[in-house]
Amino acid sequence: MQEMSLLSDLLEAGYQVSPQAAELITSHNNPRALINHILGSVDDSVFVIDVEDIDFTGFEEVREAEIPCKESVANTNSANPISVLCDITDCSTCVGEYMEFVQYFRNRYSRLSEMIRGRVNARPMESLKGNRRVPGDEISIIGMVSEIKNTSNGHRLVRFEDPTGSFQVLFSMNDKDIYEQSNKLVLDDVVGVSGNLTNDGKLLIAKKLVFPDLPNMGLSKNGSQGKALFISDVHIGSNTFLQEQWEDFMTFVKRQSENPELNKIAQQLRYIVVAGDIVDGVGIYPGQEEELTIPDIYDQYEEVAHYFNQIPSDITVVIGPGNHDAVRQAEPQPTFPERIRKMFDPRIKFVGNPALVDLDGVLVLMYHGRSIDDFVASIQGLSYSEPEKAMLEMVKRRHLSPTYGSRVSIAPEKTDHFVIDHIPDILHCGHVHTVGVKQYRGTLLINSGTWQDQTEFQKRVNVVPEPARVPVVDLATFQPTMLQF
Amino acid sequence: MGDIVVSETMQKYFDLMEGVLHNEIEIANRARSQGKDPKPETEIPLAKDLADRVENLIGVEGVAGRIRELETDLSREEAALALGKDIAAGNVGNFDTKREAIESAIRVAIAMLTEGVVAAPIEGIDRVDLGKNDDGTEYIKIYYAGPIRSAGGTAQALSVLVGDYVRRGIGVDRYKPRKEEVERYVEEILLYRQIATLQYMPSEDEIRLIVDNCPICIDGEPTEQEEVEGYRNLDRIETNRVRGGMALVLAEGLALKAPKVQKHVNKLKIDGWEWLDTFISGGSSDEEDKDEKTKVKPKDKYMRDLIAGRPVFSHPSRPGGFRLRYGRSRNTSFAASGINPAGMVIMDNFIVAGTQLKIERPGKAAGMAPVDSIEGPTVRLYNGDVLRIDDEKTAIELHSQVETIIDIGEILINYGDFLENNHPLIPASYCVEWWAQEYLKKTGRIAPENPNQHEVMDICNNYNLPLHPDYTYTWHDIEREEFVKLADFIAKNGIKEDQGNRLLLPEGKAKEQGIKTILEKLLVLHRIYDSKIAIDNPLPFINCLGLGEDLKKQWEELPCEDILGCVIRLSGWTVREKAPMRIGARMGRPEKANRRKMSPAPHVLFPIGESGGNTRMLSSAASYKANNNSKVGEIKIEIGNRICPSCGMETHEFRCECGTHTIPKLFCPRCGRAVNKDICPKCKAATSCVTAHNINFKTVYDRAFERLGERNKLESFKGVKRMMSKHMTPEPLEKGILRAKHDLFTFKDGTVRYDMSDLPLTHIRADELGTTAEKLLEMGYETDIHGNKLERDDQVVTLKVQDLVVSRGAAEYILQTTKYIDDLLVKYYGLEPYYKAETIEDIIGVMLIGLAPHTSAGVLGRLVGFTKSSVGYAHPFFHAAKRRNCDGDEDCVMLLMDGLINFSHEYLPDKRGGKMDAPLVLTTRIDPSEVDKEAHNIDVCSSYPLEFYETTLNYTNPKELEETMDLVSSRLGTPAQFDGFMFTHDTSDIAAGPVKSAYKTLGSMVEKMDAQLSLAEKIRAVDVADVAERVLVSHFLPDLFGNLRAFSRQGMRCVKCGGKFRRAPLTGTCPHCGGRVILTVHEGAVKKYLEVSLKVAKKYNVSSYTQQRIELIGYDIESLFKNDKSKQMGLADYM
User: Fold this and answer.
1) Does B231 reach chain A within 8 Å, measured CB to CB?
2) Which end of chain A is less congested by CB atoms within 10 angstroms, N or C?
3) Considering the domain A227-484, what is its CATH architecture?
4) Which of B1035, B1063, B1078, B1088 to mutate to test the interface with A (most CBs of A within 10 A)?
5) Start and end of every OB domain (chain A) (predicted)?
6) Of the candidates B208, B234, B196, B238, which has an alpha carbon nearest to the alpha carbon of residue B221?
7) How far are the Cα atoms of A143, A364, B735, B737, B753 from residue B825, in angstroms, in the given order?
8) In sequence order, which residues have a C-beta less than 8 Å from that of residue B291 and are 6 or more positions away?
9) In the beta sheet, which residues pair with residue B640?
């Protein structure tokens, strides 16, 4: 029904539509805009509109549903206002059907390709097939990586895909520059590639690789005032939870520290941002019961609430979940259930994972950071000891978690919540239990460490945590300071 | 080595077998000489002994001779090491490089250590290579692969020692690991443990100790998809994936078998292995050993990883569990144990002959066999009667009336199994055999059978002999207060009746005061009449309670602490423990008897690509049209090309139209030249004869029917999509037509097989095997076990070592196979039919090949009869020759003629493990010295000596009794190694009990689980809540978590072409064929066990931790599969 009503515009204009093209159009984010675009751009000689006739060049999609789930709840505490711009909570539409997976990736493609389109004059892949072009012509495509292979001669062969088809691109070992750039490609990245076609027209030899990336902005930012503090991975309930250090930290937050320096900072605190894993959870890994001091999940949260409820009321707290928390494992994760939220003081704000929040004019993108595992495993030179480097990879590709099917479970929602549309002032992750802070093109990247000592598992996999370190950011200057408890 | 020592009759038997064998080989060769098969002669070489097998398996010439020399004065292990050194030094065999010599040396040594039977030496080692140490010296790397598992821990560990031994001989340095490499091993083995099972998990420090010190680098192929996370991209370790073979050799080999390695190190005086001392002495295993010596504790290891639908029969060592009866029946031993068939029925038909039980001790698992001469279960019926059921018929009658199973009966385990597992003997339950020997010793007379209560008491009083076991109750199971209460109650309320033959107690009162429960705990049988509890023959019982003839209590205070002590003091008799130890058990896997089918199951190994569709129907391929313009039946397939040496014609068939046998047409895939060698002389690439080209399949298809003179009326006739073998040689289509006609399926090597669970059998009776004494006489049997002439069908006869008893299903399938072979001989080869069998009785006496999974050596066997059980009964030596024991494993039989005519190396898959499970050699004669050593620990006496029972009370190490017991090991090398075996307990029917396990007859997993839990509720020795929790934690929860994870990371699949995608294609449809793409993990698979888990968790009130895990996963699933928008619309929205 829907399909027919959509396509009727085309039919009324006197065109026939092939089934493939019909599918492409109807599954698009904004089919009406696309149809209007087609009507405007299609060649007069065309009678039956097929996939190759749909030229995306110049299609400026009018994005209505750009922000997945917008909510603008201003906190009642007007001194430290907070509004949530982007969060999956109560907006999950996924029911687990195949088409949802397709839509999820198409949504990613259309939004990320839009960011690149201005810099690359790309054509649909389907149009590269069949009609032979002059070999050596420079052409560009925007594609999602579907396969990365190394040839026996040491070159890298990458298959790219767009909604019309797929194409193979060779990153030659002899072109050091481009080859090294291609080292950074991970599966399901959306990037632009320019290069020359081989003689048989079946392969593109890459010359240029374009990531969506952040725009190169100056450092002049309109900040706010006061300070925000970032923590994550508290892991209350675990027998390796560092209670003593945590209590010291709470003393500091309550502005009762004996250290005047710390107290001074505490006086300026306006926000505390928590990026997941506030408890150790139950049943997260085999044999976890042996390593829990609080075996009941709700008791764990009671304990957390007991601490958080002591935080002075003029400090606003935002909490998002992580993979140890009692919410669904598939990301994007909605926020904590009512039963848990009720344990906390009502002024504590709960969000999903990821979530984009506005803290009195400062945009903070919170993401627990599960995908850092994937980045570290697939990009050479990244390690758990420098989590900020993995976070840099996120902002460069304007996507928090590109690779599908590996360590991150995803829920196929209508829109891809991992796409970074709005450029945040601060990107905040946790998960890996190490600390890292970095400035990149006006965005501050923070990984906020942990409150858990090295676990048996981490010993085995050679991860050395940096517990009880807390980054504090001056909201006026975006200067980070590191506190140690 | 030489000939096997045998008696005259056995010699005749072997001659008879070999006569038939050679006759069949001759027929097979005649058929194959026509050139209609890959090779013009049969491809299974015969191996008379181990030396032959090793040489045939590895293919190094001269090995057999050297083995025979070495074995004259060295043990197997020593000889293997010596031979390895010989080969590496170049004394045996011919090798181009040092590397190849080392590799062969190690392979041959493993082959010897594994009796030349398993596939480990060919498949378990990928290659051997030389690496460079940081100081510039060289070291040896052995790349182990997954199939090394089949070698077993000892051979795995010794293979490393062989490596070290040969390394010294040729001057290669030791491996000097870098620090990060050591840590990589630690991480990787711990990770492997999570993915797969390891018999022994070394501690992290133990792993470090081994890697730091082991002179050989234990490397391996990546076998798992998982990658290590910490120590990645190391220089000298080529993969980040987990190397399963490496983990096995290090953990199950070197770590677990360190004492064995040390023994050889000491003998050979090799240095550099001193670290084994710290390993052996420092380990925590030592403490456990000590514990075991002093006292045997309940072990719950067998309870781990409980699966839904496979019930627990007894918790560890709990009263009401299996009572141990020492002894061997003719269908037990060799890791098979017996229980009464009545018990099989009463325990809801879960256990049948061949079912595997995981047991608490002495080993890990045991196959089950029916033995009706031991005690069955004791039950309470709904009417209150408590009785013991010893026969299957009564069990079936009463099954529905059973309220509680108070005691699950006896389990028959032989001494040999304790010896084999090196488990201390545990105190024997007091049983008739023991009592009878005590009686004999004291009185010099044969003990009376079934003495009545007066006689029993007289014997106690007159000879001071222990109380007869039938009147001995489980006193050790009750508390002091219970004893006092019981004695008081009977003193006050008991009434003797019928001259003391019956004791009556008021039922209502007895129940109220818990007296009935105490009687049940003691296993005092009773019935309920007119609201009275009636105990028959109560006099010994009354005396044991310290009551006088008038039922007056003769005592005030209990004389000592333990109840049995009290009983002894009060009664004035010696009373022994009825069941000092119980043995816990749960169901392992069900018995199996089924035709071997690949999935999907082809009738013929002929490739048809996609043209046959997903069902691979050959008829659709014959009528296939690629497009409107193409010819009917023209299909494109990858196939091996052959060429006729005389006329030069190219074909895929084995015989050219001119009648000549064709040979593969090899070419170099790189330079495209035709070369008639395995390696291209120019570019050194491996050559191939495979090309993808169009063939007119319709012609091939029609012509095959025509040649056979068969009409095409086959309902289903299936081929394969693609050949997996190196040369992609297809089978002749004719073979498939005849197989399809007789409803037979082929396995990867071209043979037809039938799988069955193994059980041992040492003696048979013609009447239980569907055969006659006459027939047995024809087959070379002469006398029964007592040496009498064989005349009647019910005489017990010793089974000949290579004779097999198969399930009826197998017999039917074999019968079909004989018809197929006859058809093949007549219609395809134009020869005389061979079997001419019409009924299954006709095939008694046919020759078979027994072959176990993971092995590559078949054993020649002969069919002697059938059984209705779903098992393959054979002599323990026969199983041992295949390197199996009877703990629930299964293996297959095939018809000898089928193997000889149809087996070919050309069909075997060209991949890791491809050579496993194929008859690469055939052992023709079983030499007991050359079978798996485990079989040497079988006891074959007719009764256990009194001394045995007495020593068990001290938890003696079974080794100390080795001399006293009549074991196979003491008979080796004499004619008695085949003859004169006996057993201690007979069974009237080796096929007694239910035919199929309830696990197989019940439908869904939920149904199975319900049955499992309802049985758990019935058995006193089982804690049903614990069972429920274990099933949830070890089966349902991992399933739920796994599927939920899998859903969110799943790959997609095209329904049309079967293409697989890591993620959904952006085009939505299949990029290859435009077909519809679907999910591979569905919501249904994820939710499957959610509801039942919630229900079970609630009903049995499992731990709150587990309940929360289920609750959380429920929320998780709901969040993933419910749209928040539509969720908010409740019923109210529509009103």
Assistant:
1) yes
2) N
3) 4-Layer Sandwich (3.60)
4) B1063
5) 139-200
6) B238
7) 61, 81, 10, 14, 19
8) B297
9) B690
* CA–CA distances in Å: residue B109 to residues B100, B153, B354, B740: 14, 14, 34, 43
What would the 3-class secondary structure string for B457-525 be? Answer: HHHHHHHCCCCCHHHCCCHHHCCHHHHHHHHHHHHHHCEEECCCCEEEEEHHHHHHCCHHHHHHHCCCC
B627/chain A closest Cα distance in angstroms: 21
pLDDT band at A70 (very low <50, low <70, confident <90, very high): very low
In the Cβ-directed half-sphere of A263, how many Cα atoms lie within 13 Å? 6
pLDDT at A37: 73
Q: How far away is chain A from the Cα of B187, in angstroms, using its nearest Cα?
A: 5
Q: B309-346 pLDDT, tens per residue?
A: 999 999 999 999 999 999 999 999 999 999 999 999 99
One DSSP character per residue, A8-52 reads HHHHHTT-EE-HHHHHHHHTSSSHHHHHHHHHHHS-TT-SEE-GG
Query: How many residues does the structure list for chain A?
Result: 485
* pLDDT one-digit tens code per residue, B59-107: 888 889 999 998 888 888 888 888 888 888 888 888 888 888 888 989 9
The pLDDT tens digits for B726-761 are: 999 999 999 999 999 999 999 999 999 999 999 999
Distance from CA of B33 to the nearest CA of A (A): 45
CB contact (8 A) between residue B1068 and residue A27: yes
At residue B856, what are phi and psi to the nearest 5 degrees? -130, 15
B572: CB partners within 8 A, 6+ apart: B543
Amino acid at B846: V
CATH fourth-level superfamily of A125-210: Nucleic acid-binding proteins (2.40.50.140)
- Residue B1130: what pLDDT? 44
Whole-number Å distance between alpha carbons of B132 and B178: 12
Instruction: With H, G, I as helix, E, B as strand and everything else as coil, classify residue A166.
Output: strand
CA-CA distance, B1117 to B1040, in Å (whole number)? 9
SS3 string, B88-113, reads HCCCCCCCCCHHHHHHHHHHHHHHHH
**3-state SS class at A170:** strand
B685 touches chain A (CB under 8 A): no
Residue A81 preceded by cis peptide, ω within 30: no
Cβ-Cβ contacts under 8 Å, B1047 against chain A: 96, 330, 409
Q: Are strands B312-314 and B871-874 parallel, antiparallel or unpaired?
A: unpaired
Asked if residues A354 and A232 have their Cβ atoms less than 8 Å apart, the reply is no
- Which of A24, A98, A330 is opposite residue B1120, by nearest beta carbon? A330
Q: How far is B1079 from chain A (nearest CA, A)?
A: 6
CB-based contact, B463 to chain A, within 8 Å: no
Residues 190-209 in B contacting A (C-alpha not used; CB under 8 Å): 190-191, 194, 204
- Helix B258-268, helix B275-282: angle, nearest 10: 150
Residue A234 near residue A305, CB atoms below 8 Å: no
**Which residues make Cβ contacts (< 8 Å) with residue A481, sequence separation at least 6?**
A265, A471, A472, A473, A474
Q: Within 13 Å and on the Cβ side, how many CA atoms surround B1037?
A: 26
Contact B1067 A165 (CB under 8 A): yes
Length of chain B: 1135
Q: Which residues of A451-482 are buried (b: 16+ CB within 10 A; e: fewer)?
A: bbbebeebbbbbbebbbbbbbbbbbeebebee
Would the CB atoms of B1066 and A106 count as touching at under 8 Å? yes
Q: How far apart are CA A443 and CA A40, in angstroms?
A: 39
Nearest chain B residue to A294, by CA: B1105
Among candidates B325, B337, B369, B414, which has minimal Cα distance to B939? B414
Chain A residue closest to B225 (CA)?
A406
Contact A296 B1069 (CB under 8 A): no
